[in-house]
Inverse folding.
């Protein structure tokens, strides 16, 4: 049996939340939670593009779908923790905030940041999914309840 333990699962989850957050939301939550600590850039925010790959039907052969713009950066706190961020779009401020959250989640401030930044992002993302699912469900046609008109 394959070992399914992933030591980076929590980090992947919070990085995914921040990468998918609406513009300015990570920055607003971080600034409301605490004052930003001192840090040094390892890689200042820079905008580039990545190739997005897809699969027909989710299982077919992979193909290049197109390019997507991303902003990436890396920083280190004065205490030594390193934070990284890859954010969709041209959002240098959000990339900086996400990298700071990533680095701070490796410190004793992790529980506070989880409650004030990550948990609200998770709730908002779940609400967006629910709203999208409800909107799609409203267009669903149930053919089994339709009457053919024959008696």
């Amino acid at each position: 049996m394959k070992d399914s333990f992933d030591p980076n699962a929590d980090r992947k989850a919070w990085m995914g939340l921040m990468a998918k957050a609406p513009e300015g939301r990570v920055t607003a939550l971080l600034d409301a939670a605490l004052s930003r600590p001192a840090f040094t850039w390892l890689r200042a925010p820079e905008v580039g593009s990545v190739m997005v790959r897809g699969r027909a039907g989710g299982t077919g052969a992979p193909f290049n779908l197109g390019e997507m713009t991303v902003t990436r950066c890396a920083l280190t706190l004065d205490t030594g923790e390193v934070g990284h961020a890859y954010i969709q779009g041209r959002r240098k401020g959000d990339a900086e905030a996400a990298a700071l959250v990533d680095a701070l989640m490796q410190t004793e401030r992790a529980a506070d940041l989880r409650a004030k930044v990550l948990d609200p992002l998770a709730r908002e993302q779940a609400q967006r999914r629910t709203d999208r699912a409800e909107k799609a469900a409203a267009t669903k046609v149930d053919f089994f309840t339709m009457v053919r008109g024959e008696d």
In short: Residues 110-137 form the longest helix (28 residues). Residues 9-42+71-134 form one domain.
